[in-house]
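It is worth pausing here to work through a concrete case rather than discussing structure prediction in the abstract. The textbook approach is simple: state the sequence, then state the predicted structure, then interpret. We follow exactly that order.
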Amino acid sequence: MVKELLKVNELKICFHTSYGIVNAVDDVSFSIYEGRVLGIVGESGCGKSVTAMSILRLQDKSSGAVESGEIVFEDQNLLEFSEQKLKIIRGNKIAMIFQEPMTSLNPVFTIGAQIGESLKIHQKLKGIENKAKCIEMLELVGIPRADKVVNEYPHQLSGGMRQRVMIAIALCCNPKLLIADEPTTALDVTIQAQVIELMKEIRRKLQTSIMLITHDLGVIAEMADDVVVMYSGKIVEQCGVVDIFDNPKHPYTKGLLESRTENVEKGEILNCISGMVPSPVNIPKGCSFNPRCSSCMEVCRREKPPLIEIEQGHKVRCWLYGKKEEI
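Step two, the predicted structure:
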């Protein structure tokens, strides 16, 4: 039986803004299992990155905070950890790849210095041993001339190489969980394919669990075992990757699938979901998707639907699947 590595339970994250308190993530629960990939998909503004940042408590503490819920990693609630205990986890047992490597890498330090920092802190490697491990990690992620690149600076590398460096930094302490926040954003198609292939190879070699955040369903199809679809801070559908493509239930999930470019011929108009993700300060009453939903009923405008299991392992938050007496 596959062992549960991380469990997020009824997570609620709020931000204090000039407009009032904003619920960025509301009642989100999911599990990540050893050696498996959980894909989290949705449009920008749905709460994907905020959820990921909360696992390592990286959100801006001055304006945002976890209001309630649990984040249980190896049977310990990370929300109860002190900052000192979290430092032992960050970059060591749980590592993160951020969206834009050029803003994540420090321009004034060499590649070797930036990879070596985690090795020095968590594995106590210094000097020649540290540099040798840095070179080994660069070779692992497929960077040529690793012995030279280790002494170079971020601006001397291409976007694809910088993203590989970010992956090397994340993997250098052999984490049990890798959080990848849109790792292929801003990369050209060829480099995207290389990065995805690299992550698949790393998963095979190291048996690392991955939480993959993306808006690209093609990446989900390539990488994920389990999928969570988020909309307006809530999970609207949750199931295995095959069911997301072969048996989608929520109108939002169906809309995302119909919006893919492969669904239209050259010269045809691309299908799209009308409207935009609502502002977190002005969430519609009832189901937050109701203003954009072609299947909207009166109950959708009136009441928030619960997340229910309609088939084994397949959950959906939609009144189309609620009990008739509830509708």
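Step three, interpretation. DSSP finds twelve helices and twelve strands in the chain. The longest strand covers residues 4-17.
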